[in-house]
Amino acid sequence: MTATTTSHDGAVLITGASSGIGEATARHLASLGYPVFLGARRTDRLTTIVDEIREAGGRADSRQLDVTDIDSVRAFVGAAREANGTIDVLVNNAGVMPLSTVSALRIDEWNQMIDVNLRGTLHGIAAVLPLMEAQGHGHIINVASVSGLRVDPTAAVYSATKFAVRALSEGLRQESTVVRVTIISPGYTISELADRGGDETTRAAARAASEQLGLPASAVAEAIAYAVTQPSSVDVNEIIVRPTLQG
To answer: What is the pLDDT of residues 44-99, one digit of tens each?
Structure first.
């Protein structure tokens, strides 16, 4: 990856940036000249990504982030603002997907999905929206899912959180004429999303489907970049990107 000569001043904040879509987005936007600020819990992985982006000529920084903790999110945003002056874009990407039937009653995992997928998105919005409104511009990108458009067995609670993210995003879009709002809804994507939690059999099936059908995370990163790089007068409200083979 070689950074372009195009320069952008305001930071792009990316949550869940230590792997998958978040990592791919950080690398891609940095290659386009955007200063990226990465957040996730795995700081060792963030450090490696930041070092590689800088070696390629890009601008990148990172900070440990737990999106379920509003104080952590505010500290993350404050550090990004101190490093870059302004915050132009927030990519709310952090998410979890432990799949199981509702009857399995995996209540802790239900709460985890609510806390990360929905509450984490709300925390990101709460931390950046006043800054963006005050500066007169900004762009919030919320990563939802095709599971926010349809419901499948074992994904009821996950889908509920992603339906909620889509509803939240559309409401925010209507409320603000200053901040652009984009929903990115990927289909099967090669990432670590299906690797943790949930029913073991379901997790294995989801992983196999992703490996067989999945988009590279870079494809979703390019969709995000498309929305980000539009003129300020253009608000790309939703992008749905699926593998061609996905039904």
So the answer is: 999 999 999 999 999 999 999 999 999 999 999 999 999 999 999 999 999 999 99
Catalytic residue at 158? yes
d(CA 170, CA 150) in angstroms, rounded, equals: 17
- In tens, the pLDDT along 173-224 reads 999 999 999 999 999 898 877 667 777 777 777 777 777 788 999 999 999 9
Residue 226 CA to residue 13 CA, distance in Å, equals 16
CB 122 within 8 A of CB 129: no
Which residue is catalytic, options 34, 158, 188, 226?
158
Strand partners, 184: 143, 239
